[in-house]
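Data availability (excerpt). The following record was deposited with the supplementary files.
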Amino acid sequence: MKKASMVIFILLLLTGCWDQMQLRDLKLVDMASIDLDEESGNIVLQYIVTSLNGAGQGGGKSSSEITELKGPSLVEAVYESENVGRGPFLGVNTRIYAISKSFASHDPISKLNFILTAPYSAINSPVVVVDGNISKNLKMTVKNKKEFTNQLYEFVSSLEKNGIMSNVSLMKFIQSKKDPLEDLALPLLKQSNSDLELNGALLFRQGTNTGEKLDKEQVRLVMLLLGRDQGKQRLTGHMSENEEGRIYSVYVKKSDSKITVHPEKNGMPKVNVKVRLKLIVFEAGEQVQWLNAEQTKRLEKQLSKHLEDQAAETIETLQKANCDLLGIGKQLKAYHPNIWKSLKWRKDYPRLSIKPNFDVKILNPDTE
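Predicted structure:
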C-alpha cells in the first residue's frame, strides 16, 4: 500500500513537460524578412512572430505580429531584440527567409554569414527574394491577411514539390560563396495585391547577384534541362501556327537529361544537353480528344523545335550572367579533367558552345 501511494505521488509530479507560464511566453518566428534602406544604409529586419494566447493544457489561440529592428548591420539589428538570448531568429522554427531585391544586390552573404554559427538558428529554411519594398509591403499584407505567413510557406514549398523550381536553403546559399562551381537561382516573388506570386528567378554566381534573372518560362526550361521534372510540369496553349484555333494541353510524364562534351582539337569543346521527354498531349476543347498517329508525329517535331529554341535562349541568359546553373563545370571537372585543366572557367564558360537537344515522345494514355 505504501509503495502504491509513493508511485501515485511521483506520477502527480510528472504530469506534463510544459507549464502554463512557459507556453504563454513561447514565441515562434514564422518568417524573417531582411531589407536594405538605401537612403540610410541601415538593415531593416522584420520578424513575423506567432505568440500563443490563452495557453492551457495542450491548447491555446495563436496571434501574429511584426517586430521591426534596424541597425547599420544585420548583427547589430538582431542584438536590439529583447529576445537575443534565445538566438538571432528566436529559434529553429523560422520557416522562411525573405530578402529584398535591394538587399540581395549588395553582397548579401557577407551580412548573413554569421547565422551559420549562431545558436538556435534555422539554417535549413528556404530563402526567397522579394521585389519591391518588402518591409513596407509586409506590414500591410500581414495586417490584412492573418494567414499570410502560412500560405507563403506552403506556396514556396510547392515550388519544388510541383517541379516548378528547386528551393535553396539559407545554409546552401551562404556556403555557395566559397564554392567556385556553385551557382544558384533564388525564387523571385512579386507583390500582387495582398499576395506574392512567382516572377522568375534571380541568378547568383558564388553568392553574388549577377544582375540577371530568368522569367517564369525560363525557370521551367531549366528544370527540364536538368532532368528534374517527374510528371509535374503542365502547359496549355497554341502549339502550332499552322493549326489555328487548336489548343493543346501538355503534361510531362517523365524527363531525363544528359550532358555530353565533345573535345575540339583547335578551340573550345562543344557541349550538348540531351533531354528526353515523355509527354501526354490532348486537344483541349468542349471534349478531350486524343491525337491520332499523324498528329502525334507532327506535334512531336513541333514541340522539339519549340523547346530547343526556348532552351537556347535560356542558356544564352545563363552564359550572359556567367552563371552555370546546369552544372556543366562540375561535369567537366569530374569526367574531363584534361579539358578542365585547359580552361579558365569563369572566362571561358560564357564562350562555350552549349547546344540543347530535345527528344520528345508523345505517349498514348490508353496503351502506355
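Summary of structural features: Confidence is low (pLDDT under 50) at residues 17-25, 84-88.
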